[in-house]
Task: inverse folding
């Protein structure tokens, strides 16, 4: 089952997510960087796809040809939280807190 990055609502997606598709629960854009499997704030341009063009507003629909809907349990939000937790653990270990 797919989930919306913004509201965590369950989505029944059977086809490719198109540019104008929105979440039926919160109305937010589905074809945006934050919903893409390549979105990763730890990479240059916040994207693991090196050929992708720069997108200024990652919460709005865009025309990226590399977009692949993520929507899994491990959403970009979870990846970002995991990165923070990992960094915090490393700092605690470094300073022996």
Result:
């Amino acid at each position: 089952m797919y989930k919306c990055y913004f509201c965590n609502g369950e989505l029944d997606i059977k086809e490719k997510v198109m540019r104008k598709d929105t979440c039926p629960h919160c109305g937010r854009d589905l074809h945006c960087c934050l919903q893409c499997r390549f979105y990763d704030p730890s990479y240059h341009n916040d994207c693991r796809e090196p050929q992708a063009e720069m997108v200024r507003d990652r919460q709005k629909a865009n025309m990226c040809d590399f977009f692949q809907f993520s929507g899994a349990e491990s959403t970009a939000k979870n990846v970002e939280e995991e990165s923070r937790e990992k960094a915090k653990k490393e700092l605690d270990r470094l300073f022996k807190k």
Q: What stands out?
A: The longest strand covers residues 2-3. DSSP finds one helix and two strands in the chain. The two ends are 39 Å apart (CA to CA).
